[in-house]
Model the fold of this input.
Amino acid sequence: MDLKKQIIETRNLFHQALSAVGTLEQLEATRVTYLGRQGTLALLTDELKKLAPEEKREVGALLNELKQEVQKLFDAKKAELETAAQREAAEQLKNFDVTAYKQRLQGSLHPYTQVIKQIEDLFISMGFVILDGKEVENDFYNFTALNIPEDHPARDMHDTFWLQTPGWLLRTHTSPVQIHAMQQRKPPIALAVNGRVYRHEATDATHDFMFMQTEGMVIDKNISLAHLISSAQHMLRVLFEKADLKFRMRPAYYPFVEPGLDIDISCPFCKSGCSICKKTGWIEAAGAGLIHPRVLQAGSIDPAVYSGYAFGFGLTRLVMFKYGIHDIRLLHSSSLDFLKQF
Ligand code: PHE
Done:
């Protein structure tokens, strides 16, 4: 067959082959067949070299045309197939099946949430109501009604965030809830509150300007320190899952209780002193006491008839102890690496 005919034949065959191509792999195979170093077009070029010069011009032009056409069609087909592949990938992504993951990512409850739930269950089982307080309070509920009048030095112990509205502040403790409850309820009252409190303090591993407290209060006839101690002990034993947790009471001063005391627990982490209990074997857990008659009066409850106890646990400290968290800033961060552990 003369070369001219072969060129025309090749052109037809290439068109046929290309129209049958459906994938990029098939296209590559076709490229090798026609445009490859040993491909049909290379062979035809070798044949061309054998022709006489005058024939060469004419047939050479034809072959050149074919080469250009083949390259152009090949490029177009390649672009077409690539676009189709991209569209298909996008389509698949659109129908991405989130349930198809074998190993699902699971969230977990924040350590605070876990402990609060435990504490709430515990107090509900003892017949307490769980109340919610307000984080923005005024001077009366945070201080005055709690027997901390203006100019009382105890105000200095609470580095207060005052708001721009005079007399309003971010509560420095959960004790204001005591007064709200006395005003709204009639004895017998038994309540527990978990909530945030704020102190204007520098932040370090054990201090933050926000932390959490658990307030408890019981008011009825003949309430004594014995009631206070037994319910506080019960709560701490359940929380730390240690029936042999030991307790220590120390006299302490809080203007809103009389007598006032601090409750310490034996360090749950060591027997003879560690860095957490600062080598003392004891950890401070709560401030507590019998409600001062003046506080009962501020809440319109007759101290001649009723008495009550109150305690304020450092909930943040308890959570840190329970889980062995050494830096309060981690507890208050949203670091997933930290939170994943719970
Ligand atoms: N409100 C006190 C504090 O934040 C704790 C406390 C509560 C003490 C109830 C006695 C009774 O320090």
